[in-house]
Design brief:
This protein is α+β, with helices and mostly antiparallel strands. It has eight helices and 15 strands. The strands form three sheets. A nine-stranded mixed β-sheet has the order 1-2-13-8-15-6-5-3-4. Strand 1, helix 1 and strand 2 form a beta-alpha-beta unit. The radius of gyration is 21 Å and the shape is globular.
Length: 313
Amino acid sequence: MNDEKDNEIPIFENQVKFQTYIENKHRPAVLRQTDLGPCLQLWKDSQYLKIKLSGNVIRAHVGSNPSLDFRTKNFKYCDLDLGELIERASKDLNEDYFFDTNEVYYLRSVSGDGRTPQVSNLETDFPQISQDFQHPDIFPSDRLFSSVLRISSAGVRVWTHYDVTDNIYCQVVGHKTAVLWPPWQADNLYLEGDKSLVADIDNPGPEYPLFPSIHDRLSVDLQPADVLYIPALWFHNMKAKDYGVAVNVFWKELQNKFYDPKDSYGNKDLVPGAKSLAMLDNVIKQLKLLPPEYADFYARRCVKKIQDKACLK
């Protein structure tokens, strides 16, 4: 294992030590040289995946800018055959395209037709390749939430966000850089729902003065057979260095009653948290009935009470 530093994610080559660390620390970690099954060899051949998965029509993010931005929607959702997506995503230039030859592709698989997404499951969604993949046995099988196939062109960066379930990001083909921030940085990440408004995490700009500097984040470079543990509520941003294929496995750490039963992605706020935020909207509505200096006074009292009663010291 690497010596752990404040801004580095520890890397293990022993699953027992890896599992002990994540159970005790509940912090990100990498298990290197993991036995993920035959996929490590088979999926390196894009033609193998193309042949196996052709016939599955999926909805993918397609754009000319590899830094996908949910605010400006600098991408389109496009339907195409999964075999064709693999063919295009694995190349730098394409003769067939939607917008231009340099466009990039990103797939986050969902069950259903893409318009009414359901919880993704590799085994039922893509049985042609599911037997190629296995993940390390680090959580009870009855806690499994979803298993997501991810395919991306070189250079694709997906916006910073958090999930409410623990997950492991299993890198099968290609290389990625993962950047993470702890939950207690939420105040500084300029959130809109579960996503950060900051598109360029390396140069956030003057409109985001509180955004953490490069020294206040964790990062790690992922290679094939790496498994990255991302705890629930940890913000993460992934950038593909080259064409990549990964499987993202999510599981529920808490009791089922805490999770929104309509959540297909694992990113809807936990039920008590969502209710608290809704109640807070009503609190704000009440405070706005007062003159500004009075509203400020009671707002500060509310904040102090929440800090004293609910925030970790």
